[in-house]
Amino acid sequence: MAIGETSAQMAIRDPDVRLMLRIREDDPKAFPELVERYQSRLVGVLHHLIGNLDEAEDLAQEVFLRVYKTRKNYTPTAKFSTWLFTIANNLALNVLRQKSRRPSLTIPNSEKQSGESSPDYLVPSREGTPSTALKTAELSDRIHAALNQLNDRQRMAVLLNKFEEMGYAEIADVMQLSIKAVKSLLSRARCRLRELLQDYIAPDERTTSASSSHSAPSSHSSMADSSEDLDEES
Q: Do 78 and 125 sit in the same domain of this protein?
């Protein structure tokens, strides 16, 4: 199928669109390459969203299966990652509805569940003394638990914003919401995370947050510190 002008321009800008177009044309090397690029990212987001690593891995496979089955109908109308995570979001919300329950409040971190170290984006640093490492592990667990106490939509918006670095418009496309609704979700999630992680936020930052709903980002790299800029455009 020929690519229209808009699709062609999008393919030039987005290498993942080009990869998906190769999949559409049944290039045998393209689909494995796509899975390699996105599997860990999908599993990471879905794990945080539904609270179970095995289910997240199964759901990621279902996402890829949907992509492959619909490849002949693929026409790029947005960034590929936006399209892919829209599929993932819809499947994950279906799973959560079927469960008719929230995930448990304590999510084991990846080190406990798979034997691997925690993702870099969950912890401020791996360097330092054993005491620092212990505090880092504790913070990682607290972040998992804090994310899990957000509602499903807030959690998905946070995951896409912080882990996939999506801005308001992309998140709105993925979640099929207005940009205004996304901003509201991220603002409420930010406030809730600051409340849950207040023990890890410097006192002066708490004071600043209390006096302003749009605090400036701090210089620390942990989510405890960066929770204040969740509603910033990526």
A: no
pTM of the model as a whole? 0.64
**Tens-binned pLDDT, residue by residue, of the chain (234 aa):** 444 445 556 666 889 999 999 999 999 999 999 999 999 999 999 988 888 899 999 999 999 999 999 999 998 888 899 999 999 999 998 888 887 554 443 333 333 333 333 334 333 444 445 555 555 666 677 877 888 888 889 999 999 998 888 999 999 999 999 999 999 999 999 999 888 888 776 555 444 444 444 433 333 334 444 444 444 444
* Final residue belonging to a domain, choices 54, 75, 103: 103
d(CA 7, CA 135): 48
Based on the fold, state whether residues 70 and 163 are members of the same structural domain: no
Give the Cα separation of 227 and 233 in Å (integer). Answer: 13
State which amino acid sits at residue 93: L
Residue-number span of the structural domain to which 53 is assigned? 1-103
- Could you tell me if 218 and 128 lie in one domain? yes
What CA–CA distance (Å, rounded) separates 222 from 220? 6
